[in-house]
Amino acid sequence: MNFFFPSVGTLWWAVFFGLIITIINLSYVGTFGEMEFWLAIIKIVAIIMFVIMAGLIFLGVIGKEGFMGSSVLLGKGGFIPKGSWAIFLTMVIILVNFQGSEIIGLAAGESKEPEKTIPVAIRNVTWRIVALYVIPVFLLVCIYPWNKAGLEESVFAAALNHHGFQWAGGLFSFVVLTAAISCSNSGLYGCTRAVYALAREGMAPAWLGKLNKNSVPQNATILSVLGCWVGVIAYTFDTSEVIFTYLLALSGFTGAIAWISICWSQLNFRRRLEKSGYEINKLKYRTPLFPYLTHFAIWIQVACLAVIA
Fold first, then answer.
1. Among the four 1, 26, 245, 263, which has the fewest Cβ within 10 Å?
2. Model pTM greater than 0.85?
């Protein structure tokens, strides 16, 4: 928001958007779904626009540098200028960016036909990661030198500005804002549903399992929101940004622990079904390449945690 209103302090924007996200999560779950739908549309349209423009820049159709080939991708020290170890050291940030698809499982309890919608959502996530992450980032590193990237602005906006498309800066600042709101919104949704489920299973205080008139776990939401506000206040008074770094690392760490737990639970679930004589073919959705894919998921994340440490 500093891009649009540089005179307004960060704290006020945090309070403003924090209140909006709190209200959305205390409302009917349909409100959350509608909000996420439109926020996702904005992100997807922007990414598609970037892919098209980056592709045309790469080919020399638009921009001022002509056909770029591998000059940027392999220039300034090669494809991995800081060595392969640098990739592993950034794993904590990579883990943070790719977490979130577990919300599919958390949302199953509020879906009308989870046996139909959840398998479709799971399959779509794989293709969307390729389309919305892998392809745009690949094109990004093909048209924008790595040593010019920074944290001052969206790297997608910086890449387009670099090639003479100055209007892209404001547009992608807006898109980054919608992405941040969406991330906060879905993160709070996932947190409250997990706390609510723990309370219903007797693994958290019973008062966290109560629903309001909109069938939303109000107490779990308020507790989760309070945690967010503590973070906002701490970040506001910590000018060194050390807290932000720790929160980022903590997010990657706890997310990996959560996914290891999910995979481990799924492994035990299938083993117990097999021991009880249940026909696995009757399951509405079966994990492909079981148990090899599950074991791979567990141990690759253990390796990531070791690198983070």
1. 245
2. no
Q: Where are the domains of the chain?
A: 10-237, 241-309
Tokens describing residue 260: 């290891």
Q: How far apart, in Å, do the first and last CA atoms of the chain sit?
A: 34
Question: Given CA atoms 281, 286, 288, 292 in this order, what sign does their dihedral have?
Answer: negative
Residue 261 identity: S
pLDDT tens across the length of the chain (309 residues): 877 888 998 888 888 988 888 888 888 777 778 888 888 889 889 889 999 999 999 999 998 888 988 899 888 888 888 888 888 777 767 777 777 788 788 777 777 888 888 888 888 888 888 888 889 999 999 999 998 887 777 888 889 888 988 887 778 878 888 888 888 888 888 889 889 999 999 999 999 999 988 888 989 999 998 988 888 788 778 777 788 778 777 888 888 898 999 999 999 999 999 999 999 888 888 888 999 999 999 998 898 888 777
**Cβ–Cβ under 8 Å, residues 220 and 249:** no
Rounded to whole angstroms, how far apart are CA atoms 85 and 82?
8
